[in-house]
Amino acid sequence: MKSIYVGNLPYSTTNEEMMTLFGKFGTVHSVKLINDRETGRAKGFGFVEMEDESALEAISALDNTEFMGRKLRVNEANAKK
User: Fold this and answer.
1) 12 with 42: CB under 8 angstroms?
2) Label partner for 65 (CA 20 to 30 A): which of 20, 51, 57, 71?
C-alpha cells in the first residue's frame, strides 16, 4: 500500500472526484483532502492510498497533468518517521 501526495488541487475538489480520477488506475483505498483547522476551507492538497503497483502507475500518469484548470503535483508521500 502506498500513500500518494496530490498537490495544487482546486479548492472545490471533492473526495468523489479524487476517487474517480485515481480509480482509473486501480482500487483507491482512501482519499483524505486536507482542510484548514480554523476556517474549514480546503488547503489545495490531499493524500490517496492505493496498492503499490497502481499507485506508481497513477503517479507517473497524473503528475503535471491538468485537472479542473490546475496542473497537479503527484508523487509518493513521504513515509511517517
Assistant:
1) yes
2) 51
Q: Which three cell numbers stand for residue 69?
A: 484548470
Q: What pLDDT, in 10s, does the model give residues 36-55? A: 999 999 999 999 999 999 99
Higher confidence at residue 15 or residue 80?
Answer: 15
- Is the whole-model pTM more than 0.90? yes
Distance CA 43, CA 35 (A): 5
Q: Which class for 59: exposed (0-12), middle (13-18), buried (19 or more C-beta within 10 A)?
A: buried
Task: State the pLDDT at residue 81.
Answer: 45
What's at 18, amino acid-wise? M
What pLDDT is attached to residue 79? 60
Contacts of 42 (CB under 8 A, 6+ apart): 9, 11, 12, 13, 33, 34, 35, 36
